[in-house]
Amino acid sequence: MPSVLFVCFANLCRSPMAEAVMKHLVHEAGLTEEIAVDSAGTHCGFPGEEPYFRTIDTLFEHGIKSTCRTRRLERTDLSDFDYVLAMDRRNLTSIERQYGSGSADVRLFLSFAQEAGTIGFDEVSDPYPDGDYATTYETIMTGCTALLDFLRREDTPAP
After folding, report:
1. Catalytic annotation present for 14
2. pLDDT one-digit tens code per residue, 7-59
3. Active-site residue 126, yes or no?
4. For 60, how many CA atoms within 13 A lie in the half-sphere containing its CB?
5. Which of these is catalytic: 14, 38, 68, 88?
6. Catalytic residue among 38, 77, 88, 126
7. 8 catalytic, yes or no?
8. N or C: which end of the chain has fewer CB within 10 A?
């Protein structure tokens, strides 16, 4: 079963939004038992809290519920997950510097959408506190759709 961990700075906006969107897409695809999804923050200051209310409101507007509780990235996550996906270069650098390496494929989240040709940039902008949550949602939806397509291809055995 492939496992995916989305990572942003505080685990309040982008990574919990990506977690909720990906879980929603995985559920719709009937793959809940095949793909594990979680999120974390490189500098999570509020472990165990719900995501920022604007994140929850944005997801609700699209019929998606968040069950995420904030947490800090742990060194073991780099071995426990197959994919550790950073929302931007700053967090990717932080992961690499603070946590070293593990067996996970650590990269920018939007790399899958870039490879699929569905997006032309590589970072999810941080909407906290009063930014454009709608645009962040659309970017994350595009990225998660490309990621799910990738995971389906990778998990399909060759004939």
Report:
1. yes
2. 999 999 999 999 999 999 999 999 999 999 999 999 988 899 999 999 999 99
3. yes
4. 7
5. 14
6. 126
7. yes
8. C
